[in-house]
Design goal:
about 90 residues; mainly alpha; 3 helices
Length: about 90
């Protein structure tokens, strides 16, 4: 079975039903209702604090766990990747 590329709908695109509703509303001279406004997401302060705590420890703990040889391999790979982009 062949795989087919599918276009993902954008969030800004209107649905077919929304377009049809708008056309009917305009043709019958009814006012079109405004789309619902998205509420800004509130983050849990405790979760934010935990995330920052783990992020500050993560790199140092990983570097301490790696051998000098492995750290050098990772650094070489990163440098090669950076230079290949240019």
């Amino acid at each position: 079975m062949p795989t087919r590329a599918r276009k993902k709908p954008d969030d800004d695109d209107e649905d077919v039903n929304e377009i049809a509703f708008r056309i009917v509303a305009e043709s019958t001279s009814e006012p079109t209702p405004a789309p619902p406004a998205d509420k800004p997401r509130k983050k849990n302060p405790a979760a934010v604090a935990l995330g920052k705590l783990g992020a500050s420890k993560g790199g140092k703990a990983r570097a301490a766990k790696l051998s000098a040889k492995r750290r050098k391999e990772i650094a070489r790979k990163a440098a090669r990747t950076r230079w290949q982009k240019k």
